[in-house]
Amino acid sequence: MKLKKLLDELKQAGVIFKIEEDRLKANIPKSITPELKKQLLLNKNELKDFLLRVNSASNKNSLMITKRPTDLQVRLSFSQERLWLIDQLQGDSSEYNRPALFHFRGAVQFDILKRVLSMIIDRHEILRTTYHEQDGIPYQCINPPCDIHLEKKYIDRHNLTSIIEAEVVKPFDLSSDLMVRLCVFLYQDRTEDSGVILLNLHHIATDGWSMEILTKEFFTLYTSLIEGGDSQLAELEIQYADYAHWQRETFQKEKLEGQLSYWEQQLEDVPGVHGLPLS
């Protein structure tokens, strides 16, 4: 029997292989036929060599994130899909807004602030990505760079907390909004220029680590442009959508079936009712 055909039959029979310390181990279901079990034992060494080669090539490729095909609709990453589903259930919610607040003293050049925000949005596709459902599946839509609106408001500094809170809780529309907002609040009761910059993003486009990167890039660009220096950052080799595509390809259904089958066998004789304490 050819090796490929044997592997296919073993897979259909629910056999799960694993390599441990250069040894082939197999979880064999009780329902396997005697003939198929015999072929497995006869071809054990050949199966081990083949699976070692496949596993080595798979590991090398699966760890390498490359650019996604440009003609393909991009699914959401697993974490994005969770946030999208929550948004669908909750509606207009600010629970997953991720604000960052920066106090400043001195003149702020608003034209440069706006230019920097535009550069950041151009640089990171995920900030101009919206999310749309098709046949029950959410997809990413990466929109082209667009004109942005920079809000500037004069406020009484004694009302700062309530004003910031009101701004932070404004919900994002995942189907149409940019996933980042920038507001500048200037204190109207001071002679010198001072105030607060509020950067607000939706969690579907950022996390704590990413926020640090974005704010560092933002102020690096702003300082550079103010000083008349080089405003170029190193080009990004991949975007978040590339990662989302890679994740879906790496953990696609076929690759998870083996793990599912293994645990089904492990839990086959587990009683449906247990005596474990629930609290």
From TrEMBL:
Domain of life, per UniProt, equals: Bacteria
Any one Pfam family match given in the protein's UniProt record, by short name: Condensation
- Which residue range or ranges hold the Condensation domain? 74-277
What is an example of a GO molecular function annotated in this UniProt entry? catalytic activity
The UniProt entry's coiled-coil ranges are none
What is this protein's record name? Condensation domain-containing protein
Organism of provenance: Pseudoalteromonas citrea DSM 8771
